[in-house]
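Q: I'm writing a short methods note and want an example of a predicted protein-small molecule complex. Could you take the sequence and the SMILES for 2-acetamido-2-deoxy-beta-D-glucopyranose and return the bound structure as tokens? Please keep the output block clean; save any remarks for afterwards.
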Amino acid sequence: MSDKTGKQENLTAGKIWEDFIETTGFHAVNKIDFGKKHPPGRSLFWMCIWLLSAGYLIFTVTTELISYYKYPTTTTVSVKNNDELDFPAVTICNLATRNRSMFAEDERTDIYYLGISALYDTAAKVNWSDPFYTTEGYFNERTLDDLYMESKSLSNFITFHKFDLKPFYLKYTPVSTDLGLCVRFNMDSPPEKTVMHGGVYNLQMYIDLRLDDDYFAATYLSSGLKVVVHDQSEVVMMANDGFVVPPASEALIEISRKEYKYLPPPFRAFEDDTCDDKRSNYSTSKCHQCCLRDYLLQQCSCVGFMFNSPTGKYCSQERYLECFIPEFWNILKKGLNCSCPFQCQYTEYDTKLSFGLFPSTFMLKSLATMLNETEDYIKNNFISLTLFYKDLKTTITEQKPCMRMLEMFFLMLADKWDYFLVQAF
Ligand SMILES: *[C@@H]1O[C@H](CO)[C@@H](O)[C@H](O)[C@H]1NC(C)=O
Ligand SMILES: *[C@@H]1O[C@H](CO)[C@@H](O)[C@H](O)[C@H]1NC(C)=O
Ligand SMILES: *[C@@H]1O[C@H](CO)[C@@H](O)[C@H](O)[C@H]1NC(C)=O
Ligand SMILES: *[C@@H]1O[C@H](CO)[C@@H](O)[C@H](O)[C@H]1NC(C)=O
Ligand SMILES: *[C@@H]1O[C@H](CO)[C@@H](O)[C@H](O)[C@H]1NC(C)=O
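A: Understood, no commentary inside the block.
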């Protein structure tokens, strides 16, 4: 019984093969008939050819599969013309942000502030057992109000500004940075957009530096402004970025916009690194800032004004000098191990600067009337800033997956599946 069924199956399989090779369109298969119609040698020859081809196909598909799982990419650079562009955020700091009138005129105050200035090397050691420091509150925790009180209010001394020819239009807010209290234009999202470009449009302003109020500055020995043009989502270190504008100058800042788009995992965005796009609000600089802050918070149990304090309390002046600053320098020397992956998409702004003497001798008189200040004061204290897009173009650097053989094969198959079916059967 079982023998009979076996024979039947054999017969059926043989019959099916015969049927198949008679009707199939696959090359060479119809020549393999095991000597039924043609000499056996011929079958053998075609079988070899067929097996070789099949082997080659398997080899190709395997290599393609291996290459497929390496996720090869290519990077393209293109230029896009826009009808309108988001205007970047602009952060501006007076190089000397402290207001002298707010500090007690005492040698011991000067010793302390020299100790946290760029000339800290030359400062004498603060004698903390001197009761002066206790009565002046150097051991008390501080709040943002203290920062606002003892800083020059730069925002009051932006004497004039306009955006796309609209006076006093673009919003700005005081922000605390590593250089002290600064101002930031256009920080809200969504950011202000512009449809205009060129040297007379976009953001223009006059700023009064109030150099007579100077007190020990944080990082610099010169006077002027520090300006950083950046994306709204970035956290900027004013000391690491941007450019300085000297007093008595008119600075023209030409901006061009660059976008970078990298592929999320499993693709490799930066050589052996992947990028992070899961959290849409994620920014590498924010992550670094938090990592830095948490480390300092751990070391000193307080942070300086450049960070956002979770409790709203900041280092006392004593802690700032004795713990925060030394730890901060330590990090700069040693580096800090933050696991902050790169973000997959970001925008950068390139700037090109040119300067003129501000104001011209001839225009000085009219400006003195307009600003209600003496000519001498204007010559020493004023800066004119113009920040503008050169054009409304964006240079986009984009990583793209390579079109791979396997994908092409499946695309072709999808396109021509009916043809293949008809051929095969
Ligand atoms: C520090 O101040 C205290 C109190 O004024 C004084 O007695 C002491 O001599 C000072 N120490 C130094 C090193 O100046
Ligand atoms: C410095 O403080 C004095 C006194 O409060 C104030 O009149 C002056 O406007 C301040 N200067 C700046 C640049 O904020
Ligand atoms: C991003 O952050 C803003 C405010 O910081 C918040 O309103 C918004 O919901 C966040 N978006 C996402 C996707 O988390
Ligand atoms: C940073 O972390 C990595 C892995 O977490 C470790 O291999 C490396 O030694 C660390 N570097 C420093 C300076 O701590
Ligand atoms: C110009 O400034 C002076 C003092 O600096 C003031 O008395 C005067 O009122 C001001 N004039 C105008 C038009 O604001």
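A: Remarks, as requested: The first helix runs from residue 2 to 23. The pocket of 2-acetamido-2-deoxy-beta-D-glucopyranose (ligand 1) is lined by residues 127, 129-130 (CB under 6 Å).
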